[in-house]
Design goal:
heterotrimer; A alpha+beta (155); B mainly alpha (235); C mainly alpha (42); A: 155 residues; alpha+beta; OB fold (Dihydrolipoamide Acetyltransferase, E2P); 2 domains; 5-stranded mixed beta barrel; 25% helix; elongated; C: 42 residues; mainly alpha; 0% strand
């Protein structure tokens, strides 16, 4: 085997090792804590005053019975829950058609001093279940949490 | 000739894929039921999911060929790798567009910087970058080596696209399994997955032929080009 | 009419399929075209 060939093979092995190490690091959760797409209601509550004025995303389920639609159709109030904590949300946005009680949502905005989360960007999260219509709509928070991949906070 | 025979065969694979794509899409659009909450919009699934799968298959093929290409230095593996990358990039681009179109009515937004969307865009940019790199390198052997290394590096993002929704919080849902999808929806999904795969294999094959023809022309043109360069240098 | 369900939305479905069909067709055509041009130059 020529020297050049040997060097190239060494290079392949090095490249593959770097790639594998990067993936392994990511998979083992090395970056996980720094990559928070949204905060859960519990985490938001734990953050307390730190959350006020900061630009954050809040994710959770729309608490059953909490939806209050404004008369103008452009504002609405509801609460986001993770089964432990509930955060009241004031949204000045037209909700997507799938918005309903018990569905997963991600809202982008900030915490006001009165403890209400204010948002202009309301996103609805779909789970990985695709079923034909004509089934009863039951709101089971525990089950929805699971299928929407909202993990409970450890606190 | 081996090449010609392979070409004949691939033509039928592509045609069969196209036929399957029509059948699968027909079932998905007109036979399968609407979704309980998403209604008819969920029918985008039958192109979106197969496109995603096959784009990642293309990149995986490219990754394998990149290693072969570095190891053995054959023109064929380099050409086929190029085909797999370009086909992957085309599907990846369509994937992003389909996803945006699906996101607007369901999530309420065309785009958001969640991990799945971001890593998918990065995947598109990385592999498009490999193709760009190829066009900048004139020497065929160097081009093959550099683009193979770039492909191996870019490939790190591919498993990330797949697993990110399991590892981190995202707007995009995790992978469905046959148990979370209505059986009538699984049928068009499966048909279209094979359909897009067959079409993609034909595309890879065609692109490989183009690359081989180009390289052959480069080699025959080389003395001529060197003469031109020398002339420019002397001028 | 139950809440939280998308009604209609066929325009989105048509757009997604049309873009996919167009993209694949244009790419397939470019493959044919590029290969033919290289063959003609030989």
């Amino acid at each position: 085997m020529s020297n050049e060939r040997k060097r190239r093979r060494l290079f392949i092995i090095a490249a593959a090792a770097v790639a594998a190490a990067t993936l392994g690091y990511l998979a083992s959760g090395g970056i996980g804590e720094n990559l928070v797409y949204y905060w859960s209601p519990s985490e938001l509550e734990a953050a307390g005053d730190e959350a006020i004025g900061a630009s954050i995303r809040l994710g959770g389920l729309v608490a059953p019975g909490s939806i209050e639609r404004g008369g103008d159709g452009l504002t609405l109030k509801f609460a986001v829950t993770d089964g432990e904590c509930e955060v009241p949300v004031y949204a000045s946005a037209v909700p997507p058609a799938m918005f309903r009680e018990g569905i997963g949502v991600v809202v982008e905005g900030t915490m006001r001093d009165d403890g209400t989360f204010e948002t202009r960007r309301l996103m609805v999260k779909h789970d990985n279940e695709y079923t034909a219509p004509a089934e009863g709509d039951s709101v089971d928070v525990e089950k929805m949490m699971q299928s929407m991949q909202f993990e409970r906070s450890e606190s | 000739m081996k090449e010609a025979r392979g070409g004949m065969w691939m033509k039928y694979v592509g045609a069969f894929g196209l036929l399957l794509l029509l059948v699968g899409s027909y079932i998905g659009l007109f036979v399968a039921p609407a979704e309980r909450h998403m209604g008819d919009v969920a029918r985008i699934m039958y192109v979106h999911v197969p496109t995603a799968w096959v784009a990642m298959v293309c990149y995986t093929i490219a990754f394998g060929l990149a290693i072969v290409s570095l190891w053995k230095e054959t023109a064929v593996s380099d050409a086929r790798m190029t085909g797999a990358i370009e086909t992957g990039v085309v599907l990846n681009g369509l994937l992003l567009l389909q996803g945006m179109i699906w996101g607007r009515p369901t999530w309420g937004v065309w785009w958001d910087w969640d991990v799945r969307l971001t890593t998918s865009l990065v995947m598109f940019l990385l592999f498009a970058g490999v193709l760009a790199l190829r066009s900048f390198v004139d020497d065929a052997r160097r081009r093959a080596a550099w683009s193979a290394v770039a492909t191996i590096v870019a490939f790190v993002d591919v498993p990330l696209v797949y697993f990110c929704v399991r590892w981190w919080r995202s707007l995009h849902q995790v992978q469905s399994t046959p148990s979370t999808v209505d059986p009538m929806m699984v049928i068009p999904l499966r048909i279209n997955a094979f359909a897009v795969l067959f079409v993609a294999l034909w595309m890879i094959h065609m692109r490989k032929r183009i690359e081989l023809a180009r390289r052959k022309r480069e080699e025959t043109d080389l003395p001529e080009r060197l003469a031109v360069q020398e002339g420019e240098a002397n001028a | 009419m139950p809440e939280g369900v998308i009604y209609g939305g066929w325009s989105f479905v048509i757009a997604a399929y049309a873009i996919t069909a167009t993209g694949l067709t244009v790419y397939a055509w470019s493959l044919f075209f590029r290969l033919r041009r290289l063959r003609e130059e030989e």
